[in-house]
Amino acid sequence: MKAFAVVRSLLYGEEMYTLASTLTLFKEAKDIQTIASIQLPVFPQENLLRPTTWETLTSLSQVVENVRVLKQSYSKYQRSLALNRALGLLTNILNSPDILPEAERGLILDIAQTWKEALLQIASEVGEITITSEVCNPYVVGPPVEGHLFVGRQDIIRQLKELWVKANQLQSVVIYGHRRMGKSSILRNAANCIGEKVRLAYINLQELADADNLGDVLIGISDAVSQEVKIQAPSDNEYINSPQRTFKRYLQQVANNLGDFGLIIGLDEFEKIEDLIEAGKIPENFMEYLRTLVQMSPKIAFALAGLHTLEEMTADYFQPFFASVVPPIKVSFMTEEATAEILENPGFEDFPLGYTPEALSQIYTLTYGQPYLVQLLGFQLVRLYNDSVFEMKLLRAPIFTVSDVEAVVNNPAFFQGGRGYFEGVWGQASDGAVFQQDILKVIAPYPEGLTLREIAQLGNATEEAIETLKRHDVIEVKEGEVRIVVELFRRWVNQVASSSS
C-alpha cells in the first residue's frame, strides 16, 4: 500500500493501490467476526491491468457478503445456504491457483485458506437442514404471544425500562395503539423483558365486563396481584362490604412486602372502565381512586393499555388520572428489521424454514409491519409448505419466495382468516369523527393514494376525520397524498367498497 500510494497518479496506479488496499483488508481478517465486518472498497471496472485478480477478489467479496448473512440471519436454512455458498467460492479459488498472476497468487491463496478454515470451524454449529415431518407452526394468530415467542418489540421495551428500571420511582403510563398492534403481548411480557426487579400483574378488563359492582372489579385485580406477588388477597366478603378501603389496605400490605421489587398493575382494554361507569357498575370517581393508590407508594404504578390516550376519551372520568401518568407510549408498526426478525426467528430455535430477502421485503410492503398480519402471513406460509410437501408430495426448497407470499394473500381464505383484524379497524373507523369510512372507501382503489382535493370531489370528508384516521395509523399523508397505510387492509376495504356499490 505504501509503495503504490507513491505512484497512484501513474497509469494503472490507482488500480494497483486499490488492489493492495483490498488485499491488506482481506489478509488482516482471520475469523468470522472480522471477515463479516470488512468494509469493501469500490472495485475498478474498466481498462484493468489485473482483470483475473479482480474476478477472484469479487468472489472473495461474495464470501464476505455470505459470512454477513451467516452472522446476522435467524433462519437456519439461510445460514446453511450462506455457509455452503462461501465454502464453494473459496474451494473454487483454491482449486484454480494457476489463473492468478504470480505476484499476488500466494497472498490470495493464503487468504482463501485462512477463511475456509474459519468457516469450517463453525460448520458443525450451522449444520445441514433436513425436514422429514410437518413443520410445527410457530406463528401465533389471535391470542397475545408470550414467553420465547415474544420478539421484535425492543423499541417499546426500551421506553418501559426508562420508566420502570432507570427512573427513581415507578411511573404510571398509558400504552395505546389501534387493534391487533400487540399491546396485550407487550403488557403480558414486559416484566420478563425488563428485569428481575419489576413484577407485573396483568388484568384484561374485558374479562371483568360482566362485573356487577366495584367489589367484583377489585376482586379481579387483587387476584391477579396476589398471584404475582404471592400475598394472600382479602376475602370476597371484605370487598363486598368495603371495596375501596379493602383494596387500598391490601395494596399497602403488598407495598410493605415488596422489598427491592416494584409492582406494575397492568389494566388491558382500559376503555372498559368507561363502559362500567356508564352502566353504573363502578363509581364515576374510580380513576381518582386509582390515582390515590399510585400516590400511596413509589413501588406501585399502573399501566393502562387500550386504543386511545386518556385525552381522547370522550368522558371526563379519566381527567383525574392525567397528572399521574407520563406521556403515553404509542404502539405502532414494527420496523422492517423487526418484521424480518419475527419471521425468521419466530421463537423456535429449530425452526427450519427461511425467507428470501425479496419475500421479506414483500411481506413488509403488504403489512407495513402490522404485527397481527405479519403473524397471519407467517402462519399461512408454514401451512402452505406443509400442505405442499406432506399432503401434495411436491418437492420444494424450505425457503419462502415472493411467489409463495402472493399465493397466500391471493387466496380468499387469507382475508377470511384475518376478518378479526380487518373488521376491527373498519369498525373503529365508525366511531368518533364522521365520514372516516367514506374516506377509506374513496381512497381504497388507489394504492398510491389521492390528494385531499380529489377525496373531497369523490365523497364526504372532513379535516377531523382525516386527523382521526391518521392518529389511529389507518392512513398517512405525505406530500399532499392520502393513502391507506397497510396494503392488505387497503385491498380488504376495496373489496368491501366494491361489494357494497
What's the overall average pLDDT, rounded?
Answer: 87
CATH topology of the largest domain: Rossmann fold
The gyration radius over C-alpha positions equals 29 Å
- Helical run tally: 23
Which class best fits the helix and strand makeup? alpha/beta
CATH architecture of the largest domain: 3-Layer(aba) Sandwich
**Global outline:** elongated
The CATH homologous superfamily of the largest domain is named P-loop containing nucleotide triphosphate hydrolases
Annotation, overall tally of beta strands? 10
Helix content: 40-55%
**% residues in beta strands:** 5-15%
- CATH hierarchy, class of the largest domain: Alpha Beta
Task: Report, as a whole number of angstroms, the end-to-end distance.
Answer: 72 Å
Q: Strands, helices and their partners?
A:
Elements: H1 2-6, H2 13-28, H3 32-36, H4 51-72, H5 76-94, H6 102-126, H7 154-164, E1 173-176, H8 183-194, E2 198-204, H9 214-229, H10 236-241, H11 243-256, E3 262-268, H12 272-278, H13 286-296, E4 300-306, E5 329-330, H14 336-344, E6 354-355, H15 357-367, H16 371-391, E7 399-400, H17 402-409, H18 412-417, H19 419-428, H20 436-443, E8 450-451, H21 452-458, H22 463-471, E9 475-478, E10 481-484, H23 487-500
Helix pairs in contact: 4-5, 5-6, 7-8, 9-11, 14-15, 15-17, 16-17, 20-23
